[in-house]
Amino acid sequence: MDTRLKPVGELLRAWRERRRLSQLALSLDAGISTRHLSYVETGRAQPSRETLLLLAGELEVPLRERNLLLLAAGYAPIFRETAMQAADFAPIRAALERILAAHAPCPAVAIDRHWNLVAANAGVAPLLEGVSPALLSPPANVLRLSLHPEGLAPRIVNLAEWRAHLMARLDRQIAESGDPALLGLRQELAGYPHPAEAQGDGALGELAVPLRLATPGGVLNFISTSMVFGAPRDITLEELAIEAFLPADDATARAMRSG
Questions:
Q1: Any idea where the HTH cro/C1-type domain is (predicted)?
Q2: What residues pair up with 247 in beta bridges, in sequence order?
C-alpha cells in the first residue's frame, strides 16, 4: 500500500468529485450534515471509522481504496486481500472453474482489475493460434492480447469497432477508479497501429458490438457478456470479472459445437 497517503479529507473530496456529486448531494445520501462533510474534507474534523465507511459506501469506493481511506484517517484496514491460491479461496476457485467449464465450448476468461488473465476455459486456446508467445507469458493481459499487432488484432475483422468498444470500457474504468496502472495500459494500447475509423457492422452492430474473428474455418461472430461476483467482502473477489463470448449466429454456434 502507498505509505505516502494524502489527508483523508483530500482523498474523500477526490472521490466525491470523481463521482460528480456536490457536498450537499453526498451529505443527503449519507445522512450527515453538509457542514460536517465540509469540515472532514478540509481537515477541520476527523471522521469516525463508521462515518468514513458510510461515505465510502455512498461513493462506491472500491474495497482496496477503502482500506487506503482508513489508513489515511489513522484506522486499521478491514478488507482483506486473499491470494488466489490460498486455501480460504478454494470455494471461489471452484465456482470460477465451474462457470468457465459450463460455458465451454464457447470461450470465456476470468480477469483481474488490470485485465490480466486469471483463468480460461478450453474454448480460448484454439482462438489464440498464431499469437506471439511473448503476449501469452504470465501475466497475460487480455486487452494487450486483443489489440497488439502480434496478438489477435490482425484477425479481428472489425478491429476499429472492437477497439473503440474496448477503449471506451477502459476509459470508464479509469474514470471510476483513477487507477494509474490502467492509465498506463491505455497509453500503451493507444500507441498500437489501428484502423482510422470504426464502421458499423450490419444489423448485429445495431444491437451490440460483435467480435468478428477470422479463423481457418471462416469468420466467427461473437457477442460478449461480463459478470462479477455479488456482495464481495474480499478485495481479490471484488476485482475478479468473467468475460464470456456467445455465438452471434448459427454458423458460429455450429462451429463451437464441432470444435
A1: 12-66
A2: 222
Number of helical (H) and strand (E) elements in the chain, helices listed first: 13, 5
- Residue pair 111/142 in contact by the 8 Å Cβ criterion: yes
CB 205 within 8 A of CB 164: no
CA triplet 107, 147, 211: central angle to 5 degrees?
A: 45
Tens-digit pLDDT profile for residues 102-134: 999 999 999 999 999 999 999 999 999 999 999
Q: Which residues pair with 222 in a beta bridge?
A: 211, 247
Handedness of CA 53, 55, 58, 60 (dihedral sign): negative
Enumerate domains of the chain plus CATH numbers.
8-72 (1.10.260.40), 87-258 (3.30.450.180)
Average pLDDT, the chain: 93
Residue with cell 470465456: 108
pLDDT tens digit sequence for 190-249: 999 988 765 655 556 568 899 999 999 899 999 999 999 999 999 999 999 999 999 999
Rounded CA-CA distance 75/14 in Å is: 19
Q: What is the DSSP letter of 6?
A: P
H-state helical runs in the chain: 8-18, 23-30, 34-42, 49-58, 63-72, 90-103, 133-136, 142-147, 159-177, 180-190, 202-205, 235-238, 250-258
| Cβ(26)–Cβ(60) below 8 Å | no
Distance CA 137, CA 124 (A): 15
Residue (of 35, 37, 36, 43) closest to 6 by Cα position: 43
Q: What is the CA radius of gyration of the chain?
A: 21
The percent of residues in the chain predicted with pLDDT above 90, rounded, is: 89
Residue with cell 470460477: 96
Q: Which residues pair with residue 48 across a beta bridge?
A: none
